[in-house]
Design goal:
Blueprint (H helix, E strand, L loop, with lengths): L5 E2 L12 E5 L8 E5 L5 E7 L5 E7 L2 E9 L1 E3 L9 E16 L7 E15 L4 E9 L2 E8 L8 E6 L2 E4 L3 E5 L13 E4 L5 E2 L3 E5 L4 E7 L7 E7 L2 E6 L8 E3 L3 E2 L2 E7 L2 H6 L2 H4 L15 E6 L1 H5 L14 H14 L3 E4 L28 H10 L3 E7 L4 H17 L4 E5 L7 E4 L5 E4 L4 H16 L3 E4 L15 E4 L6 H5 L8 H5 L30 H10 L4 E3 L4 H6 L1 H9 L4 E10 L3 E8 L5 E7 L4 E6 L9 E8 L13 E8 L4 E6 L4 E8 L2
Bound molecules: 1-deoxynojirimycin (NOJ) and calcium ion.
């Protein structure tokens, strides 16, 4: 039987930049239950103690169960499990409401409004743990706090017992975890009862329409969480295995990442939630005006088409001459950056999953970095650096400081990194001085990505990670972590084996994009990959992706000659910004369609991106987000009347202008596999 549970209201004071914190205690009728409601009383969370002292929690939404009683606890490798024999010692409830400003993002101001319940528990052998719940109207985050252990001994976490039991029959959109291609699988749709081992974010829709997205926030010095379906609709946190022992080893007092559930009436509501960002620590870097949201072009698509190569030889892309062409094009068309891959020695051998020959401290003989940096500078264009590690983290860490120095010396202020290797095959340096293999989302991997971000910040360099660990909102704390991949990008359309499915964007908006920016590399107006193989999109959809798939750094990924071939469509790519004052999801269904409107950070213009799957649709878009009383010119880039992604008509694009006001509703006519992009500029 659980011991006596003291319920106390403590006066808690803490400091926030804006807003207020008040405190209250929750009155406990039952010593084995502690309950807290969200500020608007939409959600309610209870922690329950069973007669044998097992801990669980449950979540109700508007009085209806969303998460049925789900276990809490740990299996440890270093001592007996923290699984039962617990008693609630006390709980403290505090309120928090403030608004903070993002240096860059989907919206400038973010409201952080929650009620927190901290529950302290003690096991019958004397060991203690706290579980902290933050309950928002649009979701719940909770994490465990471990106190410093006796004699400061380390905690070896073998497994979490944390569970998520979905209360009603549900459909899931998910991606397998622990597999060869890491985060680069198509999103699958299945009954939740058929999910295996899933990565997060995972989105589910219950039969009453309520949507839940499972994820985590502030993944620092801990293994990434996969979700394993135990039985029925019961999911359990599964920590990414370590090659060297328990998945997580920590000493001193520490907290786990937040386990998060965004909960909304519909898919749009999930995307509108800022819960994951709110659960991260504020900016630790201070002034980050050196982090520049912007568009870029690159010596890149050629390599994926195999018309150029990363390796030395007649097809080498990274030459001084070819890069100058891209710098000139960028200068002429308003792009801040030019990415150059293959600029350094190491690409001639079999680099993927190897990386041992990569040298990040010098250029290949045909690429004059200082000269190109100077050439760009005269034209207002910045070279974007590239570090492809082939997953050889041990090798990369040895060169990291010298590599950053070289770029910093040449005025390179952002770097794309890459870790092309199979799942579980990244190479780490062990404490014994020997190489071992492991997952990039293991605790070791998480530490490595973090190290790169922190070291790059010292040189005022922003990082865009490819083959990354999943995003858990750390951009709030480290705003130089400007973007990442971690999804099937447009490169799959170049390889064509097979290209991305026609519903890909409608899927990732409401799954992968809930975690943060994606360096998707949109804008392939030529609509074909290697060997001229067409892929599943109309031209209008390529434009819509610039608004829909958020990233503060966006690559217009096609070749110069293709942009020159389609000047009308290219105009939208020139105009669209990458940093936003505000974002509204107009509507959407996971995997079917989505429409997002965003307001430019630097002007009064709005931009809209809308996409559909393989089905044609006509969607009503009320313009009520526009300022009342103003007239706007709507520059509309829509699928032509005959457009269809399955034929040559995928190039059919109509560009129109008309005047609109906030009282108007536009009809978005989307072709099969199509989309629409709109720029709305106030009339002077
Ligand atoms: C995979 C990345 O996603 C891609 O953008 C890059 O070109 C290659 N790796 C080579 O680094
Ligand atoms: Ca990739």
């Amino acid at each position: 039987m659980a011991q006596k549970f003291m319920s106390i209201g403590l006066a808690v004071r803490c400091c926030v930049a804006l807003g207020m914190v008040v405190s209250s205690g929750s009155a406990l009728a039952d010593p084995n239950v502690a309950t807290v409601e969200s500020p608007g009383k939409v959600l309610s969370v209870s922690v329950l103690v069973a007669p044998d002292g097992r801990l669980s929690y449950k979540i109700d939404r508007k009085g209806e169960p969303v998460i049925a009683p789900s276990r809490l606890g740990f299996v440890l490798a270093s001592e007996k499990p923290l699984d039962s024999g617990f008693a609630l010692e006390r709980n403290v409830v505090t309120d928090h409401d403030d608004t903070w400003e993002q240096p860059w993002g989907e919206r400038r101001y973010v409201r952080n409004h929650y009620r927190q319940m901290r529950v302290d528990v003690k096991k019958n052998d004397g060991r203690r743990l706290a579980i902290v719940f933050r309950v928002f109207d649009d979701g719940v985050g909770f994490r465990y706090e471990f106190p410093k252990q006796a004699n400061n001994r380390a905690v070896h976490i073998a497994d979490e017992l944390t569970e998520f039991v979905v209360a009603r029959p549900a459909t899931a959109w998910w991606q397998q975890a622990g597999e060869v291609w890491a985060l680069e699988y198509p999103i699958q749709k299945s009954p939740l009862r058929e999910v295996g081992m899933a990565n997060t974010p995972m989105t589910v829709k219950m039969d009453n329409g309520t949507h839940i997205a499972f994820h985590e926030a502030a993944l620092v010095d801990y293994a990434s969480m996969w979700l394993r379906r135990v039985e029925g609709q019961r999911l359990r946190a599964h920590l990414t295995p370590s090659a060297t022992g328990a998945p997580v080893v920590r000493s001193g007092a520490f907290t786990t990442p937040w386990r998060t559930m965004q909960i909304a009436d519909n898919a749009a509501g999930l995307y509108m939630s800022d819960l994951v960002l709110n659960l991260n620590e504020p900016n630790k870097l201070g002034d980050v005006s050196w982090v520049k949201p912007s568009k870029y072009v690159g010596v890149w698509w050629d390599m994926h088409l195999e018309t150029k190569s990363w390796a030395n030889g007649p097809k080498l892309g990274a030459t001084t001459e070819y890069t100058k062409r891209y710098i000139d094009f960028a200068a002429k068309n308003g792009f801040r950056g030019v990415l150059v891959e293959g600029w350094n020695p190491g690409w001639d051998s079999d680099w993927a999953g190897n990386g041992a020959d990569m040298d990040f401290t010098k250029s290949n003989p045909r690429f004059d970095l200082p000269a190109l940096a100077a050439y760009g500078k005269e034209r207002g264009v910045h070279i974007i650096g590239h570090h492809e590690t082939g997953g050889n983290i041990a090798h990369y860490e040895k060169q990291l400081d010298a590599a950053l120095k070289l770029y910093a010396r040449n005025g390179v202020d952002s770097i794309k990194t890459g870790y092309v290797t199979d799942g579980g095959a990244a190479q780490f340096m062990g404490k014994n001085g020997k190489i071992h293999f492991g997952y990039t989302d293991s605790q070791e991997g998480v530490r490595h990505y973090q190290k790169v971000i922190e070291e790059a910040a010292r040189y005022k360099i922003a990082i865009n990670t490819h083959e990354p660990v999943k995003d858990t909102g750390l951009r709030r704390t480290y705003p130089n972590w400007i973007s990442r991949e971690g999804a099937r990008g447009v490169e799959y359309n170049a390889w064509g084996e097979p290209p991305n499915t026609v519903d890909h964007e409608a899927n990732i908006v409401f799954t992968r994009m809930l975690s943060g920016p994606l360096d998707y590399t949109p804008g392939i107006l030529s609509l074909e990959g290697k060997g001229k193989k067409p892929f599943n999109s109309t031209q209008a959809k390529q434009l819509a992706n610039f608004v829909l798939i958020y990233s503060p750094v966006v690559m217009a990924a096609d070749l110069i000659e293709h942009y020159e071939r389609y000047p009308a469509a290219f105009k939208f790519i020139q105009d669209v910004p990458t940093d936003w004052q505000d974002t509204r999801v107009i509507h959407g269904e996971v995997g079917e369609y989505a429409t997002i409107a965003r307001k430019d950070r630097k002007s009064d213009a709005w931009y809209v991106g809308s996409v559909t799957d393989g089905n044609a649709r006509t969607l009503d878009m009320p313009l009520s987000f526009l300022d009342q009383g103003k007239t706007y010119v709507a520059e509309i880039y829509r699928d032509g009347d005959d457009a269809d992604y399955r034929s040559e008509k995928r190039f059919s694009l109509a560009v129109e202008k008309r005047n609109v006001t906030s009282g108007d509703t536009l009809k978005l006519k989307l072709a099969p596999g199509g989309g629409q992009a709109i720029r709305l500029v106030p009339v002077k």
